[in-house]
From TrEMBL:
Residues of the PucR C-terminal helix-turn-helix domain: 341-396
PANTHER family to which the protein is assigned, alphabetical: CARBOHYDRATE DIACID REGULATOR, DNA-BINDING TRANSCRIPTIONAL ACTIVATOR ADER
InterPro entries: CdaR-like_regulators, PucR_C-HTH_dom, PucR_C-HTH_sf
Protein name, per record: Sugar diacid utilization regulator
Top-level division of the source organism's lineage: Bacteria
Pfam families: HTH_30
Length: 405
């Protein structure tokens, strides 16, 4: 087939050719096979006139989507992208001997997907960067038009709806309902959101989608997307019931094997407010480090609500809400390099157990007895009163946040 010039390619796009026709002509223009991936990691088009002599490439286009593991790698774009390229691109040589080059397909600041060029008969060094950029621009224009002005009757997949919810792209509830009704999401059940930061998760597995299958075994019928390195799972509440000890034992073993941690939101029944619960799951991930001894690699938002509330107090004002004696202990520790405040917090969080406090701090029980005796002198007879204990613990937790700023 004849190779189009760049101007013929532009004219073809302006004349309103189909998206598949445009992809074919772009492949001929670049002399290499192309795959177009949308922002839910579905393969929405690929070249037929030029294909890759590569089993992984063939299996992927037949399957119709990119593995969740490799999607996580694409989400680490900033760390993995080519450093000396004029345009945003990532070159990957770890999948098969054939190199692959990925480009962002963006329009008006919105990431629509990725262009995947596989090195075929023409080495990448012989393909002009400007030509690749032109192709991404033409594809972006067509994809944007299809997404925003395409057939309103088109079925929406659940991942598309979840992405739009996470991004806050629905103008109002009517807009949301119009989209969700064209998906298979159940709007009459209880949900939870699970989140995980995949910053250190790197995989070039483009073959079988093991990661996604494993997650769906744990959370059947879940909807899974990755947004800016964050894995987001929308799961029906019945499949994420905290009382299901067998499920969460399996989950903990799985997370340990993968080196991951999950945050889990409160249950909710209005998908339109999903971002609020996505934020809860993210806070559970972020604030779990303040828990005394996290028993598991998953954390429910319920466990960190106190820290979530206290973290809303501006950093510069946190000391203003602390008990005077607690603040004095904190200042003494900073000056004398002692651990009275830490001892006090652990003591209260372990239900005033000398043994548990000593074990946590790896010191002798007599040391804890001595420290608590000194602390009692500071607080006086009110030290054992419930109201005082609550005030002291909240002050300790506020200063714990302050120390980590």
């Amino acid at each position: 087939m004849e190779t189009p010039t760049r101007w013929q390619l532009v004219q073809l796009s302006l004349d309103g050719c189909s998206f598949d026709q445009l992809v074919e002509q772009c492949a001929l223009f670049l002399h290499n096979p192309l795959v177009i991936i949308d922002n839910t990691y579905r393969i929405i088009a690929h070249s037929h006139c030029i294909t890759a002599p590569d089993e992984v490439w063939t299996n992927a286009v037949q399957r119709g989507y990119v593995t969740l593991e490799f999607a996580a790698t694409l989400n680490n774009w900033a760390a993995l992208k080519d450093k000396n390229s004029r345009y945003e691109r990532m070159t990957v040589s770890q999948i098969t001997p054939l190199r692959r080059r990925f480009y962002h397909i963006s329009f008006r600041g919105e990431l629509l997907g990725y262009l995947n060029i596989t090195e075929g008969s023409t080495p990448f060094e012989e393909v002009e960067e400007e030509c690749c950029h032109l192709v991404t621009q033409l594809l972006a224009r067509e994809m944007y038009a299809q997404y925003h002005f395409g057939d309103a009757r088109r079925k929406s997949n659940n991942e598309e709806v979840l992405l739009q919810l996470v991004a806050g792209n629905f103008v109002n509830r009517a807009h949301f309902l119009g989209q969700v009704q064209r998906s298979t999401l159940n709007t009459s059940c209880t949900w939870r959101v699970l989140c995980c930061d995949l910053e250190n998760f790197l995989s070039y597995n483009a073959g079988e989608d093991d990661f996604k299958h494993e997650l769906l075994e744990l959370f059947p019928y879940g909807t899974i997307v990755i947004v800016k390195r964050i894995l987001v799972i929308l799961c029906e509440g019945r499949y994420c019931d905290p009382s299901d000890t067998r499920l969460f034992a399996r989950l903990n073993r799985y997370l340990k094997a993968k080196g991951l941690q999950f945050g889990i939101s409160d249950p909710f029944d209005d998908l339109f407010h999903l971002r609020r619960y996505r934020d809860q799951a993210m806070q559970a991930c972020r604030l779990r480090r303040y828990l005394l001894q996290p028993e598991h690699l998953y954390t429910f938002f319920e466990e960190v609500k106190t820290y979530a509330l206290l973290s809303r107090i501006p950093r510069g004002e946190r000391q203003l809400f602390c008990s005077g004696p607690v603040l004095a202990l904190w200042q003494q520790d900073r000056l004398e390099h002692t651990e009275y405040l830490l001892t006090l917090r652990i003591y209260l969080q372990t239900n005033r157990s000398i043994k548990a406090t000593a074990a946590f701090l790896h010191v002798h029980r007599n040391t804890i007895n001595y420290r608590i005796g000194k602390i009692r002198e500071l607080f006086g007879p009110e030290f054992d009163a419930l109201n005082t204990a609550n005030q002291i613990l909240l002050s300790c937790q506020l200063l714990q946040l302050a120390d980590s700023d």
